[in-house]
Amino acid sequence: LTTEVTRPVNGYYLLGVIGNPIAHSKSPAMHNAALLEAGVQGAYVPLHVEPENLQAAVMGMKAMNFRGFNVTIPHKVDILSYMDELDESARFIGAVNTVVIEHDRLIGYNTDGVGYVRSLKEEAVSTIEGMHVVVIGAGGAARGIVYALLLEQPQSLTILNRTAEKAEELAKDFKVLGNVNGYSIDSAEQVLAQADIVINTTSVGMHPHTDQTPVSIHHIPEGIVVSDLIYNPLETKLLTDSKHKNCIIHGGLGMFVYQGAIAFEHWLHVQAPVEAMRRAVLASFT
Ligand code: ATR
203 labelled as ligand-binding? Predict the structure, then answer.
């Protein structure tokens, strides 16, 4: 990271997030707090964009000299076709969550998985290298996480999913990066017995269905690391039950904060004020 902020023409950084729905996004609160804390002049705005207006919206951002923006549901995949350049993360994952506008060129990144791994390493594990990692779920969120985890060279990465074919397919897509396999969730008992780190990427346990867990807690070994991407609630039943089995637990808030922190650093080339960002997200819950 360079310490100097590259000044835009008007000395003011325009940033935002495009999605639909977007009203309840916590990104504006988090990034505006980050701009303030870092002493950077600018603003981050929520932008409601319908799918049929995606191209016009992206061209508009360029025309209005936005420095960059985040992309959320439902545009993460469709936006690929408007990028001039893709970072390796976005290319592998097949989705973009962060765009940098560099001299009229649109560069697409995916900071979700890398943000997740940075949060896991800051908050729960000293290393992923050599570990047996189990990912539950094989959807869009799992894709980003599997990519970033494999860069850390685990001993094995096993994907478990309700629909076995999706787990197998996801594993096949990432085979070039490491030892990754996909199975049906029915294999949970055998697979989890070997696990050092277990990560839930499904929505099972999310508000309002907070009494559910994606796998039986009986299959989680004592004392391992258990992580959940869900951050509403901050501690899912999977995490609470795992805590009672002496596991180290890790919730989803950190992933949200760090995907934002890495995006902030791509846009502004200054270190993201992670703690101020975390505080802002927590404050926006109340
Ligand atoms: P996301 O982008 O959040 O990953 P997604 O792409 O729709 O969303 O993927 C959802 C994931 O959660 C899938 O792995 C899905 O399993 P299937 O592939 O079998 O559909 C999983 N999932 C969602 N609800 C589930 C439930 N009630 N039980 C088990 N798995 C569930």
Answer: no
Nearest ligand 1 atom, CA 166: 18
Known binder of ligand: residue 186? no
- The share of the chain scoring above pLDDT 90, in percent, equals 94
Burial class (CB in 10 A: 0-12, 13-18, 19+), 176: exposed
Task: State pLDDT tens for residues 52-97.
Answer: 999 999 999 999 999 999 999 999 999 999 999 999 999 999 999 9
Please work out whether the CB of residue 203 comes within 6 Å of at least one atom of ligand 1.
Answer: yes
Q: What is the pTM of this model?
A: 0.94
Asked whether the beta carbons of 253 and 123 are under 8 A apart, the reply is no
DSSP conformation class of 233? S
Both tokens assigned to 151: 């860069």
Residue 9's CB: how many other CB atoms inside 10 A? 6
Residue whose CB lies within 8 A of the most ligand 1 atoms, among 96, 203, 204, for a mutation test: 203
- Told to judge if 76 belongs to the known catalytic residues of this protein, a careful annotator would answer yes
Q: Looking at this predicted complex, what is its ipTM? A: 0.98
Closest residue by Cα to residue 74 from 101, 35, 48: 48
Strand order in the sheet with 68-71: 42-48, 13-19, 68-71, 98-102, 105-109, 85-86
